Each structure stands twice: as C-alpha cells, then as structure tokens.
Amino acid sequence: MLEVNGLRVSYGGIQAVRGITFHVNEGEMVALIGANGAGKSSTLRALSRLLDPIGGSVRYRGKELLALPPHRLVGEGIALVPEGRGVFPRMSSLENLRMGAYARNNKTEIENDLEQVLVHFPRLKERAQQLAGTLSGGEQQMLAIGRAMMSKPRLLLLDEPSMGLAPIMVQKIFEVICAVASEGMTILLVEQNAKLALEVSQRGYVMESGEITLTNESKALLTDPKVRASYLGE
Amino acid sequence: MNGHLKRRPVLIPGQRPWLGFLLLAAVLVAVPFVAALGGQAWVRIANFSILYIFLALGLNIVVGYAGLLDLGYVAFYAVGAYTYALLASPHFGIHLPFWVILPLGAGLACIFGVLLGAPTLKLRGDYLAIVTLGFGEIVRIFMNNLNAPINVTNGAQGITLIDPIRIGDFSFAQTSTFLGVSFSGPQKYYFLLVALALLVIVVNMRLQDSRIGRAWQAIREDEVAAKACGINTRNIKLLAFAMGASFGGIAGGVFSAMQGFVSPESFSLMESITILAMVVLGGMGHIPGVILGAVLLTGLPEALRYGIEPLQRGLFGRMIIDPESLRMLIFGLALVLVMRFRPAGLWPSSQRRRELAESAD
C-alpha cells in the first residue's frame, strides 16, 4: 500500500533521514521505532508532506505522494495524527471531530461516522461541548485520533501517540489503536515506546541516526538481543 | 447538541426582533441629524466612525478570523484612496465615475493583499507583524516619492480637488433637499457609509459560520493540524489577506471622495495600529465588539478634544494642561485599562470569554 524508497530529509545541511526504504502492506500495522532524534518523526512529516524531502520516492497505491500538496493527502485516504496531539484548542470536541471531515461532502455519511467515532470514544461524547484545549492529554490524543478517523482514511499515520501521557492513559490509547486496527485499518505507528509499539504491531523497523538498521516481524524484534539492549532497557 | 448556542440576540427587547431592528434603524437615521445640531463637524466624526467600522471589520477578517497579525493594513486603504484620487481628479485629468473606480480600487488592493500574503505564508505572529509593518511603510514611502521622474502621486503634497461621489447630477458634496428635508454633503455620505458598513457586516457574519470561516479558525489554532484535515492552508490564508485588503481598498476610495484630498500622511503606521487597536479593544473576531471598538476609538479622542477645555475651565476656572497632550494621555490610559481589566476586549464573543475564564483557572 505504501512504499518508501530511498527517502532523504535534511535540515539545512544536516541529514535527518539518510535514504531509508520500507513499506506498509494493506491492513497491517507497522511500527517505526528508535531513539529520540533517530529521524522517525522527520520521516512521518515527509510522508505527510509537512516538509519536503531532498530525495527518494513515496508511492501510495501506485501514486507518487511527493508530487501532491499536503492538503490533498486526506482525499487520497491518508490521515495524520500529528505529534503532540495537535487538536484545535478553542474548538469544542465536536467541532474538532467535524473539522476532520472538512474535505468530505456527504453530510449524512459524516453524521453517521461522527456517531461511530463517539461510540469508539465514549469519553469524547461526555466531553462533546468542552473546548479541546481544556481536555486532559489522553483525551486530546483520543480526539486527535477520532478527528483523523473522521476523514475516513485507509492509512493512518500516528506520530508518537504515547508522548507525554500517563502510563494508564498510554494503555488506553493503545487499546483504541488496536481496536481501530482490528477493523482493518492500515497503520504506520511512529513510537519511542518500543515495547508497546512492537507488542501491538505486526512488523517493525528500527531507526538509528537516520537509517533503518533492523527490520523484522515485531515478535522477533521483541526478542532480538540488540533491540532488547538498546530499546527495551534490558 | 445545540443547547449550547449562546448567541443571545442583542438590542432586541422581548420576543419581537423586528422591534429591535426598527429601533436600531431609527437610531441610525437620527444620528446625522442629531449630530448636525452640534455642527457639521460632528456629522463628519460620525462618518469617520463608520468608515473605521468598515476598516476594522475588514481587518477583523485577517486578524480576528484567520489570526494573521497584520500591522500594514493601512497600505490597502492607501491603495484604494490613491486609485480613486488618480482616476477622479484634475491631477491626470481623468474623471471616471465612482462605480468604476471603487471596484477597481478594491481589486487593486486585493492584488496587493496577495502580494503581501504570498511571501509571508510561512510566517506567524511577531515575524508576520514585522513584515506587514514594513510593507505598510513601503507603500506609504512610495506614495511619498512617486513624484519623480514621472509625477504619479504628487509626493508629499498629495492630490487635491478629488471628485466627490456623483450619481448622474446628484453629487454627494452639495446640500440637496428631499421631501422637504435638507441633506448636507456629510449627511449624504453618512447614509452611503452606513450602507457600505451593513455590507461588510453581512459579509463578516456570513464568513464566520461558513466553511471558509472554520478553515480560518483551524489555521489560527493549529496550522499543521489544519493541513492534516485537508485544508489548503496556502489558498485560505491568501484569501484572508485578499478579502481584508479589498475592504481596505473600498474604504480608501470612499475616504478619498469624502475628503477631496489625499496625502501620504493619512496612511502612517499609527493608522494601522489604531485600526488594529479597534479590533483588539472591541473584541477580536466578534462583530459587535469590533464595531464598538471602532466607534469608541474614533469618538473618544474627538469627545476629549471638545470636552477637555470646557471641563478644565469649569473645574479650575482656567486651562492647566494643554488639551492636545492630555487628550492622548487619557486615550492611552483608557486603552491600558481596558486591556488590563477586559483582556478579551470590551465586548468579546461568548466563546472567547469562556476560553479566557478557563485558561485563568
């Protein structure tokens, strides 16, 4: 579904991503793990066209993504949940969710999906009229995921969903991600919390200073001595 | 779900909205005649209040809705004013009718808006403010110096003898009589300005609840998330600049016609700041608030100008402080006090008030 080839990103001469190649198959959840500054988020930002890579190609369902402006990705069925949640703080939860459907036109479909999302996230239903900026971190993350779901994506890009959340909230968020995945959503998960990410995903890539150094099935990575030493703290 | 719609109708007593509108209309009609009792100068002050309502609501689109801090808004006002001045004055010997020039001025200002917007798309907040400030000054300096080698703007002397707005033989500059009531020039401009102000109010209201309005709000709050929602942030931002600028252009044209004279002096940075202050002081993004801000900030200095001298004589029997310096002092103090005690503006939207209350917890 998604094929990334030789992707390179640089910030003013410093290469953050040095020609990485990976792919995501339809219906699978793939984790991209690595330490802080390994280039994971840069990769995701390049995929979602928030920054321009200096080389490589990103093909999505046979189409070159790098030729598209960022706002067109939603129409192609790609939704990004930005790092640090990125909800609209002065809109209510409900308004946030509706913004997710900005690019869609069919009103009855949107309302149906809205109800579905609220079933998925009963917490958001309770907080429907509350301003998003006043929600807890975990609720904001749920809202960001819910908003991404409102665009009816085929591919969900998640940027560090566990960042800055209490452990119990992280657990909750990952339950939600698994629930979404079990409905057949394709997910690319960028995550520092390697253990959790590998537990929920099927395959994983390990990034180190801008390069992919290791890839395997997630189960295998969890038992890989190198991964255990570097990322699982054992 | 809509139980939270807090938009309580204002100015409307009881369950009869038409009564409120009738009352408002009566007040609007009465203003120029009541003001005339104190002399035509007061009608002109009323006119300027409405012109500033127009300008402030134009800027409200850029600053209040899209959240783009623009300190060079006066540039578009200048473009509109000079477009009118050059195409309806003896300076070039061209005398086009207003219905040609006003749209032309709006269009030109719109182009300038895009010219300003395009290179600043990636800037926000203070950085954007500095670039727009520079832009406003550049336009003013051009107006000031475009008298050589070819005399286009007549430099610092400005352009005089600008045609008033005229429909056939009906000129807005002269006094004329309708149904036994005599209307002076400023009084006629008053009604024209009210009509224009109603137009900009309706546009602002429609925009607020529109798809574009929501896109602006999204960009204002989180640009990355807005992009992720599929909003074409570039075009939507340019649209805000272009729309705001067009209103500035129209206001400039009317200003030119009303004054009969334009010079670069009218388009200083102070003017941009005053218009911005109207938006912020009244209540950013909230139409009634912005209107209130515009009326107060035009009316208050004038009231102080005429009120300080008699007040001092009454209190102390003589003049103690020069009214001109005291006027700006009081004006400045009023601004500081409002921002200290009503940070969301004098009349903020219910939502904005809620935000500030919540963030204070």
TrEMBL record, chain A:
Taxonomically, which superkingdom? Answer: Bacteria
Task: Name one process (GO BP) from the record.
Answer: L-amino acid transport
Mind telling me which PROSITE patterns this protein's record contains? ABC_TRANSPORTER_1 (PS00211), ABC_TRANSPORTER_2 (PS50893)
| Assigned keywords, A-Z | Amino-acid transport, ATP-binding, Cell membrane, Membrane, Nucleotide-binding, Transport
**Does the record carry Transmembrane helix as a key word?**
no
ABC transporter domain: residues covered = 2-234
> Cross-referenced CDD domains, in alphabetical order?
ABC_TM1139_LivF_branched
Provide any one GO MF term from the record: ATP binding
Q: Which InterPro entries match?
A: AAA+_ATPase (IPR003593), ABC_branched_ATPase_LivF/BraG (IPR030660), ABC_transporter-like_ATP-bd (IPR003439), ABC_transporter-like_CS (IPR017871), BCAA_Transport_ATP-bd_LivF (IPR052156), P-loop_NTPase (IPR027417)
Q: Name one Pfam family in it.
A: ABC_tran
Q: Which family does it belong to?
A: Belongs to the ABC transporter superfamily.
The name of this protein is LIV-I protein F
- Origin species: Candidatus Accumulibacter vicinus
From TrEMBL, chain B:
**What topology in the membrane does the UniProt record assign?**
Multi-pass membrane protein
The entry's keywords: Cell membrane, Membrane, Transmembrane, Transmembrane helix
Q: Where in the cell is it found?
A: Cell membrane
Q: Name one Pfam family in it.
A: BPD_transp_2
Kindly give the InterPro entries that the UniProt entry links to this protein.
Answer: ABC_transp_permease (IPR001851), LivM-like (IPR043428)
Any GO molecular function = branched-chain amino acid transmembrane transporter activity
The superkingdom listed in its UniProt entry is Bacteria
Does Transmembrane helix count among this protein's keywords? Answer: yes
* Cellular component annotations (GO), alphabetically ordered: plasma membrane
Q: Does Cell membrane count among this protein's keywords? A: yes
Which spans are transmembrane here? Answer: 21-43, 49-67, 74-92, 98-118, 125-143, 189-207, 238-261, 273-304
- Classification via PANTHER family: HIGH-AFFINITY BRANCHED-CHAIN AMINO ACID TRANSPORT PROTEIN BRAE, HIGH-AFFINITY BRANCHED-CHAIN AMINO ACID TRANSPORT SYSTEM PERMEASE
Q: What is this protein called?
A: LIV-I protein H
